[in-house]
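ARCHIVE CARD
SHELF: 3
SLOT: left
DATA:
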Amino acid sequence: MNTVQFSAIVNGNNITAEIPPHLRLIDLLRDVLGLTGTKEGCGEGECGACTVLVNGKVINSCLMLAVQAQGKEILTIEGVGQNGADQIIRQSFIEQGAVQCGYCTPGMVLAAKSLLDKNPEPTRQEIAEALSGNVCRCTGYEKIIDAVAAAACKRSRPELGGEQTCSPEQPAAPGDVVGKSVAKRDAAAKVAGKSVFAADIKLQGMLHAKVLRSSRTHAWVRKIDVDKARRLPGVMAVMTHEEVPGRNAFGIIVKDEPVLVADKVRCRGDALAIVAAESEAIAAQALELIEVDYEEIPAVYSAEDAMRDGAPKVHGESNVLAADRIRKGDAEKALDCCDVVITNNYRTQPVEHCYIEPEAGIAYMDGDIVIIRACTQNPHYDRKDVAANLAVPLNKVRVVQATTGGGFGGKLDISTQVYLALLTRKTGRPVRMVYDREESFRASSKRHPFFIKYTSGAAKDGLLKAVKVYFVCDTGAYASYGPATMKRALVNATGPYEVPHVSVDGYCVYTNNPRAGAMRGFGAPQMAFAHESQMDALAAELGISPFEIRLKNALRRGSVTATGQVLSESVGLVETMERVQEKVRLALAGKGGE
């Protein structure tokens, strides 16, 4: 392999190394120099997790070749000072609650340092613009901007007294936490780039794993030929469904997703084979040598189509995975007596979680016990499924949740865990797997798309009399949290409002779309879109304000929900709405409104 001599100043140290000319700067930092505080999120310069400073300029290290930084000064999060002006930035992130999962934080800190070194007293707009290349999926940015603003104040105006003047929130003293802002226990490690995420873990002698995924949406798999891949020098293992020793399926509620497809592809991106090799490049090359013989069959792409007679069947004889209903009173009769009745159809879209940290993990053997360290939200579920897949007792599998860079429900489903376990047991060596952003998109679960037909009936004064709802949620090719999502949608169909007559029918169906799973309140947000749109439509039809109709129908202490629950405690909607209404009034008054 051709190499070039590289030299630069990295975090104040003179560095020289023989590197391939095509090596990216991020790979030099992480893999050659071991500076894993620099993170890779997208590989395309969009997320900013890989931010470093090159001669003081903000650079996406995933887009720069290492040779382009030849002879320059490179600063990573590990080189941001422990004391003085740099430490103020890091401490401000902690104090302001600007650190959550921590995966984007090193890039944010470096972008903030670059700004404040050049512009000691930026406006909030200037801060927002300076950080616009750094994506965060956890915080909503407000606290991050607060942190940079507080750091600017402390750095440029120490004579004002520091924290009391510049920072509105003070960390609580030990033992004094109720009603106080409490610093996260791991925030200091995260702002310093010291937290160890799954992709940061490297073990001696480890192999690199990749998954061959289906290029078809719905097809019978006639043959998978892995002979050429197995003969490739550097390949240590190639596995198909034939080598899964236990149950060839996993899933949160229904065990319907194959570890490795044995007969039928149900979704583009289904796993067909796994490879472990001495390098990622060899593993990728091995995937290209695997030959798959498909027989394509018609697919179904919408939940409504999946329920029609004659629709292609994803599993078994019916596409309906789950169905349930709620009845309270007599909604049909009540609707006939309403002064106003409004019916609308609503559709919600699938949503990608897009956590900044792609899925990653590493597994190794400790005697006859498989140890898996992965980014996951569900280590106990992972352990049960992996043990069943391996056909071993639970005490032969241990799953350790690595520091996890975002999840939002998307890391409740298994990703790398079972593949790593299979390969490390077969080879006896540590095995590491890291998804790139494209594979994360292809293999991860999405928010469930919904079709909702919603009918609301009310009296002239805006009091709700009846609600009738029919909805279908698309769980994709596999169940994941589909039945639970449908249940949550059912019980949230009427929203935070008391309705005397309710009829709700819900269905969860299979399609050949990507698996849909848990995502932040799964089921409730989709239904909220419908019931809140209905409330606005009723208010407009009746000529009353959106606040008035909500306050009139809001659940209170003593209210009875659609499922018959009597609310006895902690019903704060009315107080919340009144406070929001006052905030809106003041905001409009400040802008010359009424």
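SLOT: right
DATA:
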Amino acid sequence: MRTWRTARYLTPAQVFWRILCRGRLLYSSKAPRRAWRRIERAACALPPADPGNALLAPVAGHILKLQQAVHGPHVGNIASGRFTLLGRTVDFGSLGAVSWRRDLGEGNNALWRMTLSYFGYAPPLLASGDERALQIVLALVQSLERQNSFAASGVFRDVWNPYSASHRLINLLVGLHLFDRHARPRPAKAETHAARTALLAHIGICAAFVARNLERDLQYNHLLKDYVALVVYSCGVGELPVAWRFLHAALPACVESQVLSDGGHAERCPMYHVLSILDLMVLVDAGALDEAASSRIANCLARMRRAVVAMTHPDGDIALFNDSWLGEAPAARSLANGGCGQRLILANTGYVQLRSGGDAAIFDCGACGPDDNPAHAHADFLATELSVAGRRFLVDFGVPTYSSGPLRDAARSAASHNGPRFVGVEPLECWLSFRVGRRGRAYRIAALDCAVATPLWCAGWQDGYAPIGASVARCLVLYPGAGLLIVDVWRGGEDCEAAVDFLVSDAWLASEAPCFKATDDNAAVAVDAIVGVLAPPVPAQYWPRFGEAKPASRLCVSPQQDDAGRWSAVWIGWGGDVPEKNVAAGVRDALLTAVDRAELAA
């Protein structure tokens, strides 16, 4: 039944392509030599890519910016076989000892192996123009080819996953372009010519492989990356090859299917939103698409660059809702194109930011992702992140792993996010690494009849607890220069315990008092339960960067039961008095009225 609850959201097209795509890869694993020869023939039929083509210049600028941000600090260690990826360093001892499919002891740890095979370190390495860097990259590509024939078990899940091959194509071709641009003038060596020839041959294999195995079943960021890889190869050719001219229509349709009308990304992951901005910048500047396609993509890009402001903290980087983490892309501020308002609303995406100077609350009140592929969804409905004086205070649990197991389950659970919940009940049926069966949804409340609320407020409710006859709702009110009032209400579910947890960043020095207090160099913050019981803080962890745990403090508030039902009111203050209980009660009453209207409308 769980499988049916997951699969029933797939579109007929996805089902068709999933059968076809998986069938092709299954055939390749059963007849690896024949499949490889087919890819070689397809690669030979492609027009050869020239790394010196001028169309690659603007593309290279975007890719180098990305890979410098991700790999720049660590590329100096690669010559000795030491790789730092996704917060984990693996020292193979030498280039010759690199094991592309090493079991790192974390279950199905495919992501680290995939990232190793992306060659994201190649552009900053080759941008040096040093011939030794070229030989290092060549040695790694040759090692990858030797160890990862199509006959290798599981190779299509990581090294020869179409998503991996797309990244590898982009990074190697851009890397060669950068090498040629920055190489010191000297007579061409035979070794240099041989290295470039071998790398271009592998790039051609990647292009043919990706073109044959486009991820039309997964769509979203995977299919977009496949298409971007083909466009980057086309930049080396000078135009789209005849067999790929379907991209003039398919690519803008792919982009428009995942960029919402408010500019948000359909997967509701701020990290993938930023990565998609970079992909769209590549497409717009590539010069390989026709004017109509480029114009449609440019329109989506402009909307995305405006929208990212709403999910950017005062420190210049993204909120960590769903599968998002820091360090996988340049800071969001460098890609944004829009001013910071006091109340920014992405109505379709389901994000709202309340902001006053260096204080900002970011609120999740939308869908967990697209119904036909919510792979990166977390049960973070009505979750809140908060920055005070420019530094993050309330933080998201983050992403410790993509490997299925207890830690992945915990990361996606409602208990790990800063939202109101029912203990032991999940609003999303998350399973394995990327599956979601039964799923609820959060909704923004657009109007609130409350005279005490400042203009800086937002509210929402979610129906993920409908199976137990319950719902939850939250209202945030930001008082500039003073603090944030958080009012939560629980309706129904009388047999289930209700709670709300808050994760406080380790950047703040915490102490216990009648209320929780925290300080840093710029501000002091106190957390008070106006209504409800605030338990003493307990040590916790969060993962702002993939796989890198940091200490935190977890605060748990138990709601109060009265004639209106269960509710809590928490004041996080840094410059003003704690509001009176009747102020919080006014917000609660207005919230309950708004939820009644919303549920009737639904």
